[in-house]
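Q: I'm writing up a methods section and want to include an example of the input and output format. Could you take the sequence below and give the corresponding predicted structure tokens, formatted cleanly so I can copy it straight into the document?
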Amino acid sequence: MISQFFILSGRGDTIIARDFRKEMTKETYEYFFRKVKSMDDDTPPFFNSEGINYIYVKKSNVYFVATTMYNIMPAFIIELLERITKVIKDFCGILTEESMRKNFTLIYEIIEEAIDAGNPQLVSSELIKPFIVNTPIVINPPKTPSIFNPSFFSRDTMPSTASSKSIQNTKNNEIFVDILEKVTVLFNQNGYIINSSIDGSIVMKSFLHGNPELKLSLNDDLVVGKTSPNSVKSVLIDDCNFHECVNTKGFNEAKTLTIAPPDGEFIVMNYRVTSEFQPPFRIYTFLDEISNYKLQLTIKVRASFVETLFAGQLNLKFPVPRDSSSVSWELTKGVIGQSVEYDSQKKIVSWSIKKIQGGEEHTFVCRMSLDNADAGIKRKEVGPVRMHFEIPMFNVSKLKVKSLRIAETEKEKSPIMRWVRYVTQANSYICRAA
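A: Here is the clean output for your methods example:
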């Protein structure tokens, strides 16, 4: 039903983004914002462009947007968005850009419960509350003077001509830092790693007044290049490259980067890891021949990260033999938040898990009935199992931002550090079935 759900700030920055059906690209975020801004306040809450329907509501200068390629009643989606904004406000206390940025992990949890694979599910605070594990970071609402206060118009009140002045210099003096890692792992059917790697990047989004020079400090035990006997417990990366605005003069000794940031978003550093690391998930497959006409595939998924974290958007897909006449499956009894789909045309089974906590293990059993008595040969057509996931506030390499500060000492230039966010995603996460 719903293809994407995203939240944009008044500047067009993406605060929250969920792609449920993988039918569109992230360009829809930028296109939506350009469209809304080009029409000022005349943009309708629903419009269509190139076969994509955009539906949105605006609250506190923040856009809550849903996109879909299906013919859905706009009023229904608008009502859904209104309810989601109410739930977010109930949990965060106030519906502002700052509160949502500081509570983005909580909001991702809310979205996971409210929308399941693009279909509305739980859209009330009472129903969602039992499934939420994150606690909100409370933001005090801005104080507004009472109209009965005789000092409402103080000497600092802007004159009525202020509306004609530029507001370019009134943007928030803030900065955002993301450490994004995409993990590639290939397992054999017994869960042993054949090869693995991490492609990571440090992404910075700067809205600092005057673009002052920054000092970014990383782990003291960071080792780049070939390892040494003393680097067993170090954070190891094979190689890295930097944005042209980065001065690496003090990087080898102090692991500090000097940055002259441009406005907006840019990649400070790309890095790659091929040394051994603990993968966030272990996958085990067991393929059995029940008879000459039947095959059974059992998949076990185990989350290897700490229990305080969770992963979302889990999806495991695998092909079945082309001459499968029917496919049935079995999930662990009593589990919630899991679903299975079978595409009989493409012969692909898809197992989705809405959320999994660290340390949990889930099992899925798939039975395939064949038209011909050649299960021993057809077992080679089963798999591999491809897994997709996203883990907020977690990175596999253990690369950390120790500090970020203005190079100068002027107090008034101290930036507002909105977040250092860590996100791990699957790049190519595959387990062989046979």
